[in-house]
Design a protein that fits this description.
- By secondary structure, this protein is of the alpha/beta class.
- The protein folds into four domains: about 5-220, NAD(P)-binding Rossmann-like Domain (Rossmann fold); about 300-460, Succinyl-CoA synthetase domains (Rossmann fold), CATH 3.40.50; about 465-505 and about 585-705, D-amino Acid Aminotransferase, Chain A, domain 1; about 510-585, ATP-grasp fold, A domain (Dna Ligase, domain 1), CATH 3.30.1490.
- Helix content is about 40%, strand content about 20%.
- It contains 24 helices and 30 strands.
- The strands form six sheets. A seven-stranded mixed sheet has the order 9-8-11-10-12-13-14, sandwiched between helices. Strands 15, 16, 17, 18, 19 and 20 form a six-stranded parallel sheet that branches.
- Strand 19, helix 15 and strand 20 form a beta-alpha-beta unit.
- The protein is flat, with a radius of gyration of 31 Å.
- The two termini are about 40 Å apart.
């Protein structure tokens, strides 16, 4: 989409309000009123066939009766009339339309049909649509000042562009932004996203010089693959902060694999955003906490934080919040501590947090902040103030600003003003200088931690997924065979063959259907071996007594064979044979899996494996395709990552081989979308290489007829 396509939305020279009203309690009146009150510099054309004027401006019976050109139409008419209005806009040559009217796909099939008809007409006339079922658009650009919404407030000018999928929440967002003094550049409520979507806005704002930070409230992804592609590139230039609702679901998804059972409802979204460098906020409040920090502050070079306070309690609270968020409360250098000790009383603490005690003046903040920011071991500072008698918030704010400017705005400072008296004045002074002010310690810590996460994303090299040479035809052959037989579950030997076709080392194995074949396989592979049942209805073999390990003699192999036959039969399962495998020891058991998230696609899982995987739940997720950096993060993020380094004299595992194995599985599930779920558990991570020991694959049928 070209930039001019959305210029008609955010930079119109003329706006027709179709459905403009003289009644103050209507949306049609409020939109005209907002355009005029907030100084829209273009021409406003009210359209109302029953009025000669609206808000003292001449009104027109229809869009086609307007004498001058129209860039943007804001449509506030009953749902049944929207289609005819779009047809009139097409005849007039209108470039874009914002459909406020509701009653479309959000109300059911009839509304969806109505929406399709409107979209078809818009495309036929080359009209770009925002909505329907939205609250409008807004721009504070110099020379524009357009409030084409029914929100009661107009935010100040600033570098943040905001997209909301919820109209009702959009009103709250604009009110909150105005209250906090947060500057908005563009705002769009996209509603049903019939045409213009969040992806379109990302692309537009990425190229928009007035947009420094992109904020999004999203309820669903229309095209998650396109979002991933766009966001990976946009976040290299501008931060994106998102609230994505829908973290829970009313029902649990039935799944036969470990991976499906471990996959929470929202892990795929978390994985997608992490891979794109998007900062996810859990609430609108947290979104604005992060936005305030990103609006003006420099991105910190690292995660080392100094805390300056005039009370011990807030210092401890901030330190706890910072460490919980992954920030480091760094030890100040002896030189810094010596200089602070020379200024503050003996009762003060000059380590970190720096507690200047209640006798601290506003000037004390300037001195302490200048000292800690000059310390090479400090990347950022948080200044907390609890008002004692005789010291004003606004004076402390002024000294914080002096310290920030004094070090050339090189390192970020975040302020926590914990008293209500004088808070508004102090926050206003700080905000004017580009220093965010928070009421609670946790807000500042979360915001700074988000900035550090963004720094780490920027430091990661931009890369594309690796493509490996593989035997895709062999995998298609195995999948076709299973599908022709009407099976949705592959046998373990088939799964291992598929892994081998994509370059994963797999354990030596033979599928057998008799004791004689099992004994012959044991001799060929070499004792000791493992014996497993191949049985319908047996998923977790240990629970059914359907697996035996470390069989060192043919006698032990024969006894195990007969015992497994009895166990499987007693369990009511259907035995189709046995699998004889090489017995491998050593290494670290990990799990590598995949499930298909309905809207986002193949989702990979990695974690510590073995029989306790569902109890420990030490796993992380990413969406396919994954890059080398994505997988490196996966391996590092599990809680048990240190176990892969080797403990008590153990050799570390081959991380390079592990990273490559995950990348190969990513390629496998993208090449073969029939694969719906998968486990490799365990995948043995060895000092040299990896080895797939057990595998499970579920498929969906694609053949017809």
């Amino acid at each position: 989409m070209t930039s001019s396509a959305l210029d008609k939305v955010f930079r119109p020279r003329s706006i027709a309000v179709v459905g403009a009203s003289r009644r103050r309690d209507t949306i049609g009146y409020q939109i005209v009123d907002n355009l005029l009150t907030h100084g829209f510099t273009g021409v406003v054309y009210p359209v109302n066939p029953g009025a000669s004027a609206v808000h003292s401006i001449p009104a027109y019976p229809s869009v086609t009766d307007i004498p001058g050109p129209v860039d943007l139409a804001v449509v506030v008419v009953p749902k049944e009339r929207v289609l005819s209005v779009i047809e009139e806009c097409g005849a007039k040559g209108v470039g874009a339309a914002v459909i406020i009217s509701a009653g479309f796909k959000e109300v059911g099939p009839e509304g969806a049909r109505r929406e399709r008809d409107v979209l078809e007409a818009a495309r036929r006339h080359d009209i770009r649509l925002v909505g329907p079922n939205c609250m409008g658009v807004l721009s504070t650009e110099e020379g524009m000042s357009m409030n084409a919404t029914f929100a009661p407030s107009m935010p100040t000018r600033g570098p943040l562009s905001f997209m909301s999928q919820s109209g009702a929440l959009g009103v709250t967002i604009l009110d909150y932004a105005a209250e906090l003094g947060i500057g908005i550049h563009h705002f769009a409520s996209v509603g049903n996203k019939a045409d213009i979507s969040g992806n379109d806005l990302l692309q537009y704002w990425a190229a928009d010089e007035g947009t420094r930070v992109i904020l999004m409230y999203l309820e669903n992804f229309g095209d998650p693959r396109r979002f991933t592609h766009l966001a990976r590139h946009v976040t290299r230039e501008k931060p994106i902060v998102m609230v994505k609702s829908g973290r829970t679901a009313s029902g649990a998804r039935a799944a036969s694999s470990h991976t499906g059972a471990l996959a929470a409802v929202d892990v795929a979204t978390d994985a997608l955003l992490a891979q794109c460098g998007v900062l996810r906020a859990d609430s609108v409040q947290e979104l604005f906490d992060i936005a305030m920090a990103l609006e003006e502050l420099p991105i910190p070079a690292g995660n080392r934080v100094a805390i300056v306070t005039n009370a011990g309690g807030p210092g401890i609270m901030i330190a706890d919040a910072c460490e919980s968020a992954g920030l480091e409360i760094v030890e100040l250098s002896q030189e810094t501590q010596t200089r602070l000790r020379a200024v503050f009383p003996a009762e003060a603490s000059v380590r970190n947090p720096v507690d200047m005690i209640a006798s601290a003046t506003s000037e004390s903040y300037r001195i302490a902040l200048e000292e800690v920011l000059a310390d090479p071991s400090v990347d950022a500072a948080i200044a907390a103030f609890v008002p004692p008698l005789g010291v004003l918030q606004v004076d402390v704010a002024g000294c914080i600003v002096e310290a920030y400017r004094g070090q050339g705005r090189a390192k970020p400072i975040l302020a926590v003003l914990m008293g209500r008296q004088g808070f508004a004045e102090g926050r206003a002074e700080l905000h004017e200088a580009g220093v965010p002010a928070y009421t609670f310690p946790e807000s500042a810590a979360r915001a700074l931690a988000a900035m550090v996460r963004y720094r780490r994303w920027l430091q990661r090299p931009a890369e594309e997924p690796t493509i490996f040479p593989v035997d895709a035809d062999r995998v298609s052959e195995i999948l076709d065979g299973a599908e022709d037989q009407g099976r949705t579950q592959l046998g373990e030997s088939e799964a291992l063959d598929i892994f081998a076709a994509y370059g994963l080392p797999v354990v030596k194995h033979h599928r057998v259907t008799s004791l004689e074949e099992a004994l012959a396989a044991g001799r060929e592979i070499g004792l000791p071996v493992v014996l497993k049942a191949v049985a319908e209805g047996v998923v977790h073999k240990t629970e059914f007594g359907a697996v035996r390990l470390d069989l060192r003699t043919e006698g032990e192999l024969e006894a195990a064979y007969r015992e497994i036959e009895v166990n499987v039969t007693a369990a009511g399962a259907i035995l189709h044979g046995m699998l004889v495998q090489e017995y491998v020891t050593g290494g670290r058991e990990v799990i590598l899996g995949m499930f298909t998230e309905p809207t986002l696609g193949p989702t990979l899982m990695f974690g510590l494996g073995g029989i306790y995987v569902e109890a420990l739940k030490d796993v992380v997720f990413r969406l396919a395709p994954v890059t080398h950096g994505d997988v490196t993060d996966m391996v590092s993020e599990i809680r048990g990552s240190a176990l892969l380094e080797g403990i008590r004299g153990e050799a570390p595992v081959d991380r390079d081989a592990l990273v490559e194995a995950i990348q190969r599985i990513s390629q496998l599930v993208l090449d073969h979308p029939r694969i719906s779920e998968m486990d490799i558990n365990p995948l043995l991570a060895l000092p040299r290489g990896v080895l797939a020991v057990d595998g499970r694959i579920a498929i969906r049928h694609t053949h017809t007829g």
